């Protein structure tokens, strides 16, 4: 018989830690990865892969669609295999993964291309601690200022300054660091958070329901209760600060995009409402 040797309360802490670790962007011990050094976010390819689907597919069927079916039109088998590997690492594409299923539920509800792009950005960020930290601790302040120039040098400085808490960065080569920075900047442009090829100017996102609900779903997966999640800094990914989240949820409630009621310490939050 297996004996649980954890002390009182430790089991709950470990369970919460296990839930959070499913989502690197919400897991404080997640390492920075350099997957963006290979290519940017590949959002166009990801969107085309999902286009026309009515339900999420098993990972093997996505893989077959890319490699055998050549859905994304690559000239060689090696190119198709490499593309699949990169899409898989960025966007999960696993029907048994709770974050991907949460994403899918919101993806199919999107009403516009900007909403779809922002929802995909949230998925990418939640699956990559570096993208989350850049979004909440660096890009956020620029988005709140409106249309301002952002520079690759500033992204590089941000990453280098995090080397103390993320020593894995010290093991990256100079070329890897340059490519991560360059591809991150290209990615946020592809998601609609910036514009311009050489000179990047920020574009503050509109309040869209799907990315907000996806963040709420992710926080719930990580074990957050309503009183905790409405103060979580991860909403800064979509330019919503802690002081703004209650107003944002209230606006979405008025639109009928979710149900939100807050009275003293009692919070009611439902993501699907009958219209």
Would you write up a description of this structure?
There is one protein chain. By secondary structure, the chain is mainly alpha-helical. The protein has a domain at about 210-270. It has helices at about 10-20, 45-50, 60-65, 75-90, 100-105, 115-125, 130-145, 150-160, 175-190, 210-220, 225-230, 245-255, and strands spanning about 150, 195, 200, 260-265, 265-270. The strands form two sheets. Strands 1-3-2 form a three-stranded antiparallel β-sheet. The protein has a two-stranded antiparallel ribbon with strand order 4-5. A hairpin with a 4-residue loop joins strand 2 and strand 3. The longest helix has 17 residues, at about 175-190. The termini are far apart.
Which terms summarize this structure?
275 residues; mainly alpha; three-stranded antiparallel beta sheet; two-stranded antiparallel sheet; disordered N terminus
| Oligomeric grouping of the chains | single chain
Q: Roughly what is the average pLDDT, rounded to an integer?
A: 92
Q: Strand order within the widest sheet?
A: 1-3-2
Number of strands: 5
Q: Percent of residues in helical segments?
A: 40-55%
The radius of gyration computed from the alpha-carbon positions, rounded to a whole number of angstroms, is 19 Å
Order of helices and strands: HHHHHHHEHHEEHHHEE
What's the short story on this structure?
The chain is mainly alpha-helical and 275 residues long. Helix content is 51%, strand content 6%.
């Amino acid at each position: 018989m297996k004996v649980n040797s954890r002390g009182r309360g430790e089991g709950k802490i470990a369970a919460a830690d296990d839930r959070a670790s499913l989502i690197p962007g919400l897991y404080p011990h997640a390492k920075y990865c350099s997957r963006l050094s290979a290519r940017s976010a590949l959002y166009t390819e990801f969107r085309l892969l999902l286009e026309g689907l009515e339900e999420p597919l098993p990972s093997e069927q996505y893989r077959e669609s890319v490699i055998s079916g050549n859905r994304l039109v690559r000239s060689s088998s090696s190119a198709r295999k490499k593309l699949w590997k990169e899409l898989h690492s960025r966007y999960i594409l696993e029907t048994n993964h709770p974050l991907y299923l949460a994403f899918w539920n919101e993806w199919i509800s999107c009403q516009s291309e900007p909403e779809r792009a922002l929802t995909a950005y949230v998925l990418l960020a939640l699956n990559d601690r570096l993208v989350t930290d850049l979004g909440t601790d660096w890009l956020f302040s620029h988005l709140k200022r409106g249309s301002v120039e952002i520079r690759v040098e500033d992204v590089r400085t941000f990453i280098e300054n995090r080397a103390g808490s993320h020593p894995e960065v010290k093991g990256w080569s100079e070329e890897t660091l340059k490519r991560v920075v360059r591809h991150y900047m290209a990615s946020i442009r592809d998601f609609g958070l910036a514009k311009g090829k050489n000179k990047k100017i920020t574009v503050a996102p509109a309040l869209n329901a799907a990315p907000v609900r996806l963040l709420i779903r992710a926080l719930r997966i990580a074990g957050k209760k309503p009183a905790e999640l409405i103060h979580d800094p991860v909403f800064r990914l979509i330019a919503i600060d802690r002081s703004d989240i209650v107003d944002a949820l209230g606006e979405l409630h008025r639109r009928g995009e979710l149900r939100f009621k807050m009275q003293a310490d009692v919070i009611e939050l439902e993501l699907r409402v009958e219209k």
